[in-house]
Amino acid sequence: MAKRALITGITGQDGSYLAEHLLAEGYQVWGLVRGQANPRKSRISRLVSELHFVEGDLMDQVSLVSAVDFVQPDEVYNLAAISFVPMSWQQPELTTEVNGMGVLRVLEAVRMVCGLDKSRPTGGGGIRFYQASSSEMYGKVAETPQNEQTIFHPRSPYGVAKTYGHFITKNYRESFGMFGVSGILFNHESPRRGAEFVTRKITMAVAEIKLGMREKLYLGNLDAVRDWGFAGDYVRAMHLMLQQDTATDYVVGTGRMHSVRDAVQIAFDAVDLNWRDHVVVDPALVRPAEVETLCADPEKARAELGWKQSVDFEELMRMMVEADLRKASNEHKYSELMLAGSW
Ligand code: NAP
Ligand code: GDD
Questions:
Q1: What's this model's pTM, rounded to 2 decimal places?
Q2: Are 56 and 32 in contact (CB under 8 A)?
Q3: Which of 37, 103, 104, 236 shows its CA 20 to 30 Å from the CA of 132?
Q4: 54 has which bridge partners?
């Protein structure tokens, strides 16, 4: 019988790649979706006929118990979150509820459905659980590069809530013998990345500037440094973590550092434009507390999971620019045809 996976956050960037990966691995894939006639299924629209959906929300414990009970999954991937860091200063309580308490609610749903408790430890025999932890937990970094032992110093309500989610997952592993793992993933991007994140914001702007649709790109801190990889590579690591004999946490990243300025340079170079003619620094986009640098030490994931990335940063930025050029030029042609009255 095919293994069943339940993915929270299936409509997000990672959810869409993970769904594709698990379908290719022969899984029956279920996605937890929220809201009425969820309008944000566009990333997975071409997969809809192969996927199954169940309704639920990380804010609603009963809906999560019902969903897990209904699906009876072998593996649960908890990817749902408010994932845009600046939003966590605007809505800290909601962010904490979804990214912190939401993890506890999913763990409780798994525990209740499995009947996992001290008197009946099921260990690896229960539902396996993946938590989407984040390099944002390292925040004001204690050392470089960061590994599984590096202490956390989160710098945003997002990072603080993720740190709670990380430790409650570890605690359920230690308290109840649950097979719960956290992947401490560094930034990963793709043509499906949300438009608010810096790489996609840059590549969309580059495409539109190249096509003459706009002149300027407004950015915040150009000196911030990240370890950026390709999302399609990172979902393979999530799956591998749940196939191990023992539950433990892993850092996933490339081990390479680039600044926002580097990202800008590569993207503008890809279309033969000089970024200095177009990029404007807007102080309003600088964060109240910045994570200045992040760099992964992914040695454990490489050694124990056999994981490695297939796309480097330069290729990733060019892939995103090309995808946005195609998208913007289709929209441009469409609006020109509309204006010419020939559509
Ligand atoms: P994303 O594109 O922003 O997707 C977030 C997903 O969470 C969406 O499917 C959204 O559903 C869902 N969601 C939000 N609030 C929810 C709620 N209350 N109940 C149920 N679902 C809810 O994020 P991503 O980039 O794919 O990231 C996936 C996960 O990895 C997140 O937990 C993120 O924090 C974490 N992470 C990401 C990165 C990265 O670089 N991408 C790095 C480290 C960790 P709707 O469509 O309904 O809004
Ligand atoms: N979004 C954005 N917009 N970021 C900018 C801008 C801008 O105009 N200008 C400079 N930056 C800088 C930010 O200050 C930050 O240092 C860096 O670019 C990356 O910002 P984001 O792309 O928004 O990602 P993030 O690092 O804050 O968070 C992402 O990665 C985390 C893992 O480290 C998100 O995917 C999180 O959900 C994830 O946990």
A1: 0.96
A2: yes
A3: 37
A4: 32
- The residue whose CA has the least distance to atom 44 of ligand 1 is 134
At 48-64, the pLDDT tens digits run 889 999 999 999 999 99
What structural domains does the chain harbor?
4-189+228-252 (3.40.50.720), 198-225+259-294+311-338 (3.90.25.10)
Question: 134 catalytic, yes or no?
Answer: yes
pLDDT recorded at residue 339: 64
Q: Which residues of 181-219 are buried (b: 16+ CB within 10 A; e: fewer)?
A: bbbbbbbbbbbbbeeeebbbbbbbbbbbbbbeeeeebeb
Ligand 2 centroid–CA 57 distance in Å is 25
Model confidence pLDDT, tens digit, residues 223-250: 999 999 999 999 999 999 999 999 999 9
Centre of ligand 2 from the C-alpha of residue 217, in Å: 16
Q: How far is CA 302 from CA 25, 46, 152, 254, 306, in A?
A: 21, 32, 22, 10, 5
Indicate which residue's Cα is closest to atom 15 of ligand 2: 224
For ligand 2, the distance from its centroid to the CA atom of residue 197, given in whole angstroms, is 6
